[in-house]
Amino acid sequence: MTVPAPEKAAPHSTAIADKDISLTFAKGMEVLEAFESAAAPMTIPDLARQTGINRSVTRRLVLTLVRLGYLTETNRAYAPSPRVLRLASGYLRERQFGRTVQPVMASYSKQLGDAISLAVRDGADAIYVAYSPGDPALITSGFGIGSRLPLTATAIGRALLAFSGEAVIEDLLAAPLPSFTPETKTDPAMLRADLGETRSRGYALVTGEYEPGVTSIAVPVLDRQGRASAALGIVGPAARFEEIAVCTQKAVVLRDCAETLANFI
């Protein structure tokens, strides 16, 4: 596989001027996104601290989201309502996830004997947009649709990053890199070397860098320009993937799945 042509680093970067932006709407989205990693309902002071938005402004934004049906309130604590799923429905429907992508993933998941995840790049993260356990008896990773993983410390992230263009890579490596375990690569030179190896062999292989004792394997879903429009990955105990031949065999099946999905996403 060849290195894709450079592209702009920021996935949401546009030429829209500041004067054309609604700052109030942007702050409302910050409040809504603050619930992404929340394990429990949040109060207005919680949200104000997390977003850095003035408490009175946060209150108005929260009450607006309640009025619109995107948040629910119980004892002055707030949580997302099922209505937030509408925000993703257009994206999933346009790409025919239910009709085409999910059945393809289910077929390959059964063939592999592993749960398969499909992710796209969103800033410095990979976000799951589809998931197939294949066989309900399979042990899953505990992540589902909407889960976010770091690009630099996971195979599915590195598969996205390695085939995203040099500008994206350099922009990401210029910032401090997070560490999750003692094995996490945080040295930019080491990561560049790993991304080069990923491109050469066609798949990413990461062990113990995000979760101790866990190995992940992932391949890119390439568009016509050779860039990663998405990535497919599997995860399991490191002991299952100690032999490189096993990893290569799994990657071959994942690559077949990726080539099929490239026609839809």
Tell me what the structure shows.
With 265 residues, this protein is an alpha+beta fold. The protein has two domains: 66 residues, Winged helix-like DNA-binding domain superfamily/Winged helix DNA-binding domain (Arc Repressor Mutant, subunit A); 167 residues, GAF domain (Beta-Lactamase, 2-Layer Sandwich), CATH 3.30.450.40. The strands form two sheets. It has a six-stranded antiparallel beta sheet with strand order 5-4-3-8-7-6, with helices on both faces. The protein has a two-stranded antiparallel sheet with strand order 1-2. A hairpin with a 5-residue loop joins strand 7 and strand 8. Helix 1 packs across helix 3 and helix 2 crosses helix 3. The chain is globular.
Descriptive labels:
265 residues; Arc Repressor Mutant, subunit A; Beta-Lactamase; 2 domains; two-stranded antiparallel ribbon; 9 helices; 8 strands
Summarize this entry quickly.
The chain is α+β, with helices and mostly antiparallel strands and 265 residues long.
Q: Quick one: overall form?
A: globular
> How far apart are the first and last residues' alpha carbons, in Å?
20 Å
Percent of residues in helical segments? Answer: 40-55%
CATH superfamily of the largest domain: GAF domain
Q: How many beta-strand runs?
A: 8
How many helices in DSSP terms? 9
With strands numbered from the N-terminus, the spatial order across the biggest sheet is 5-4-3-8-7-6
> What's the CATH class of the largest domain, please?
Alpha Beta
Q: Briefly note the structural class of the backbone.
A: alpha+beta
The radius of gyration over CA amounts to 20 Å
Q: How many domains is the backbone divided into?
A: 2
Instruction: Return the average pLDDT rounded to an integer.
Output: 86
Largest sheet: 6 strands, antiparallel
Uncertain spans, ≥5 residues at pLDDT below 50? Answer: 1-11
The second-level CATH architecture of the largest domain is 2-Layer Sandwich
Q: What fold name goes in the CATH topology slot of the largest domain?
A: Beta-Lactamase
Strand content: 15-25%
